[in-house]
Amino acid sequence: xxxxxxxxxxxxxxxxxxxxxxxxxxxxxxxxxxxxxxxxxxxxxxxxxxxxxxxxxxxxxxxxxxxxxxxxxxxxxxxxxxxxxxxxxxxxxxxxxxxxxxxxxxxxxxxxxxxxxxxxxxxxxxxxxxxxxxxxxxxx
Length: 140
Prior knowledge:
InterPro entries: DUF842_euk (IPR008560)
Structural class: mainly alpha
Pfam family, one: DUF842
Organism: Elysia chlorotica
Order of helices and strands: HHH
Radius of gyration: 23 Å
Protein name: Protein FAM136A
Family: Belongs to the FAM136 family.
């Protein structure tokens, strides 16, 4: 199961990097440029400058919250799939399992969890595309 977990982690990491380089960094550059302009205004009060900076960072903060929520939902789906595998194993296990039953169950559980992981990794390209579209349209 460690291999499946590593595949999921690698795929999620690639997705996050793709979203970062494809959209977030541009948003961060714009945020920092906007914030710098806020700081250049020497006639503004400290409160006005802080308010201006807060306004500059709203889009990036919303985008990051959106991404975090989407990734959490993906992880929750994967976790529910693995829990479903555990439920299936429990349902199939006899009241007094033998060592052979336990080993068979463990093997079946591992296979089921790996299938879950592989299935969810297969969803990542579509999820990445969807998230990029949302970020680019600023509909988060």
